[in-house]
Design a protein that fits this description.
By secondary structure, this protein is an alpha+beta fold. Helices cover 20% and strands 33% of the residues. It has four helices and 25 strands. It starts with 6 loop residues before the first helix and ends with a helix. Mean pLDDT is 82; it is low at 6-11.
């Protein structure tokens, strides 16, 4: 019998074995390399996308911080000088005591200074360092018209001052006390405030006697108020030129802290407690500069911007605006240097600028360099300048 051949089956089995074989080592290495390259490319795209997203997001934060900081200061400065009622009192040094303690200036304030009755006071930083801006305003609910005095009762005249030995217990007889309420803070303005300071007192009202009642012609300032009791300072000038009702006096100072995170801050005077409190406003504000806008010829327009703080009433009457500039920084650190020059504050050429070094920054334009080169790695950040000119409407209305 003829036996079936097995050669064909053996040949087919060997071919199937070869077809079912795996990848070679070289093929696996090439595949792994391609996979790694793909992961690297995708990761780099994601990193670049995330960096771009952070730039856009933090750039938006920078815009918000700069815009809100400028808006906050603008709104406050526009109200500067409210309640003062007369440019004659501007520049006067103000003293006040609460419960026997000097509060203006505050004994516990780490940065004491004379309290000047002026709408806005600019303190220039050294060599381009950030300025500080102090805003003073009243909080009276009505108009504040200077009150003319008739007589002053209680106390004995001692030289140019009136001595009140039992504390500040007296009353002003005025021609009209319209708009004055119990609890209001009034300022006694002397005829010559260059040698005698202005004084802050609080209006009281006690129906128990005629002299201690607040009437249309009588303004008492009795020792029942904490602002009128003092055993150290017991003198006021006997014949003030006029009185001004501030309602409640307020002072707010804008400044930048000099450590990271760089922040626009305020120092606020409480007219109730006579103490200062501090508040952080907006981060990444790295420079603040300001100029007085002065009307030198009285025609209502700005003739000059400068850094000189007035010292007289007529000098303060010339200050009709404040020009400010803020530099906001994008907090995103860039590995490359993205800022090659310090930002510029455009001044134009239409109005004279004094007290600042001007550089030519284009056709018909002059600029002030806003110093930021003292910041660590300053070239690795992006910056934007926010600036405006703010009219002092309360000064314009009193002219």
């Amino acid at each position: 019998m003829h036996k079936p051949s097995t050669h064909l089956f053996a040949s087919q089995s060997g071919s199937a074995s070869r077809n079912q074989g795996g990848f070679t080592l070289i093929e696996l290495m090439v595949g792994a390399l391609l996979g790694m390259l793909t992961v690297i490319v995708i990761s780099q795209v994601l990193i670049d996308s995330e960096e771009q997203r952070r730039k856009v997001a933090m750039g938006g934060d920078s815009d918000i911080n700069g815009s809100l900081a400028l808006f906050t200061m603008q709104r406050d400065i526009q109200m500067a000088g409210y309640g003062m009622g007369s440019t004659e009192m501007m520049g006067c040094s103000l003293v006040a005591f609460r419960s026997g303690k000097s509060v203006i200036p505050d004994e516990d304030d780490p940065h004491p200074e004379t309290f000047i009755l002026a709408p806005v006071i600019i303190a220039n930083g050294t060599d381009g360092a950030p300025d500080t801006i102090t805003v003073v305003r009243g909080e009276t609910v009505g108009s504040s018209v200077p009150m003319k005095l008739a007589t002053i009762s209680n106390g004995t005249v001692v030289g140019d001052l009136r001595d009140i030995t039992t504390g500040l217990t007296g009353r002003f007889n005025v021609e009209s006390s319209l708009g004055v309420h119990a609890g209001d803070q009034i300022i006694s303005v002397p005829t010559n405030w260059t040698s005698t300071p202005c004084h802050l007192l609080e209006v009281t009202h006690d129906p128990g006697s005629a002299d201690s009642q607040l009437t249309p012609t009588n303004i008492p300032y009795y020792a029942t108020s904490l602002w009128n009791t003092d055993t150290v300072w017991n003198q006021i000038h006997p014949s003030p030129k006029f009185l001004v009702n501030m309602g409640r006096i307020g002072q707010r100072r804008y400044f930048l802290n000099n450590t990271t995170p760089y922040t626009l801050r305020t120092r606020n005077l409480s007219s109730v407690t006579g103490t200062f409190s501090f508040e952080d406003l907006y981060p990444e504000i790295v420079n603040l500069q300001a100029l007085y806008g002065k009307d030198l010829d009285g025609n209502g327009s700005i003739d000059r911007f400068d850094t000189t703080t007035p010292t007289t009433g007529p000098g303060w009457a010339q200050v009709v605006a404040v020009r400010i500039a803020l530099v906001a920084r994008n907090p995103q650190f860039e590995k490359d240097e993205v800022t090659v020059a310090e930002p510029l504050w455009e001044m134009g050429k239409a109005v004279e600028v004094q007290g600042e070094t001007l550089v030519d920054c284009g056709t018909d334009n002059l600029c002030v360099t806003l110093k930021i080169d003292s910041l660590p790695d300053w070239k690795h950040y992006r910056y934007k300048v926010y600036s405006t000119t703010i009219p002092l409407r309360n000064i314009l209305w009193t002219k």
